[in-house]
């Protein structure tokens, strides 16, 4: 197991008076062991105890050839894994469980009176995962560098008549050339006016001159996600109104980034972007939060929103992605990932945010 990370979890458990927790979310298990499991309906659970008697309970369907540094407890499909798990628990103590552990496992455990109480322990690991260690920072930088190259190549290949779906498929090919074989999320390629839908489902719309293009893509490199959005214009200069929308979004992005440093509240970073957009008369068209945390998952725990008054800490990585979405006309979103430092932040993306017109 990742000893340093596990020790931090155990310390948090002690602070909260918990002597045993169950870790079942695959990203959390990977974070602590370096091993991915995709259990489907089967139970894979890491039991952590402050007395050091940790167990990883695994179905024999999932081979473990590497040394994980934890006792493995195997079961077969004909066994009852919850009963096996219960045999290792201290019934006189509360137990922490993951927020998304399937209810049928939890209810079975509760019916056995396997613990004195049950609490949501996900925040313990979720909050630790918000602050990246040096290994994670390096992987996040590399992942974003690869994403930069992919989006630059995609933009250079834009051609009239090709469809959104064509370019979404092309993203997959470009990622594979970078050694990236998984999306962080389904690529969004939206030609105007489709870009006015922040989560437009890529379709067979063909590219025409005079359209704007929202490209929101991310890949997974060695289990760490990238995520970036750029908006460009194709074939001719944008109208004065569309140019204004673009510049407002870009300045909102820059304003929010300029706020990022240790000790600043997430809500104040959101406010820096939101207040600027509202001051320019487009407030009602900015319909989502300013950003989200990212790491092993594209949307890790934590966000940049008006209701999150938590202070950011050195080592956190999250997106800054303001947008303006005018139905039937245009959508503009500009997104970067930032890593918090004591005195500011490092922007993980280097692709230009200057207004680009692709002349072809």
TrEMBL record:
TM region positions: none
PANTHER family, sorted: AMINOPEPTIDASE, AMINOPEPTIDASE YPDF
Protein name as catalogued: Proline dipeptidase
CDD domains: APP-like
Domain (Creatinase N-terminal) ranges: 5-131
InterPro entries: Creatin/AminoP/Spt16_N, Creatinase/aminopeptidase-like, Creatinase_N, Pept_M24, Peptidase_M24B
Domain Peptidase M24: start-end pairs: 139-342
């Amino acid at each position: 197991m990742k000893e340093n990370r596990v020790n931090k979890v155990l310390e948090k458990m002690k602070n909260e008076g918990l002597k045993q927790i169950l870790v079942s979310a695959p990203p959390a298990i990977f974070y602590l062991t370096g091993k991915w499991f995709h259990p489907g309906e089967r139970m894979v659970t890491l039991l952590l105890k402050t007395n050091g008697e940790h167990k990883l309970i695994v179905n024999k369907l999932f081979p473990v050839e590497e040394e994980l540094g934890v006792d493995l407890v195997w079961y077969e499909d004909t066994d009852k894994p919850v009963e096996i798990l219960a045999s290792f628990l201290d019934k006189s103590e509360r137990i922490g469980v993951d927020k998304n552990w399937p209810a049928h496992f939890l209810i079975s455990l509760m019916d056995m009176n396997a613990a004195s109480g049950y609490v949501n322990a996900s925040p313990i690991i979720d909050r630790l995962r918000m602050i990246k260690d040096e290994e994670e920072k390096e992987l996040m930088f590399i992942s974003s560098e690869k994403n930069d190259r992919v989006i630059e190549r995609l933009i250079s290949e834009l051609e009239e008549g090709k469809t959104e779906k064509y370019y979404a498929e092309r993203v997959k090919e470009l990622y594979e050339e970078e050694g990236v074989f998984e999306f962080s999320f389904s690529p969004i390629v939206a030609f105007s006016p489709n870009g006015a839908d922040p989560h437009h489902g890529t379709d067979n719309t063909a590219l025409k001159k005079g359209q704007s293009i929202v490209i929101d893509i991310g890949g997974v490199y060695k289990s760490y996600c990238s995520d970036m959005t750029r908006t460009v214009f194709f074939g001719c200069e944008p109208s004065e109104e569309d140019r204004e929308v673009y510049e407002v979004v870009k300045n909102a992005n820059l304003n929010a980034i300029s706020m990022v440093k240790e000790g600043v509240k997430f809500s104040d970073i959101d406010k820096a972007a939101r207040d600027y957009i509202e001051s320019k008369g487009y407030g009602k068209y900015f319909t989502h939060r300013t950003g989200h945390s990212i790491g092993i998952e594209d949307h890790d725990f934590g966000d940049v929103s008006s209701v999150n008054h938590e202070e950011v800490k050195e080592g956190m990585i999250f997106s800054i992605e303001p947008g303006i979405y005018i139905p039937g006309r245009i959508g503009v979103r500009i997104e970067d990932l930032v890593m918090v430092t004591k005195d500011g932040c490092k922007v993980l993306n280097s692709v230009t945010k200057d207004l680009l017109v692709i002349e072809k």
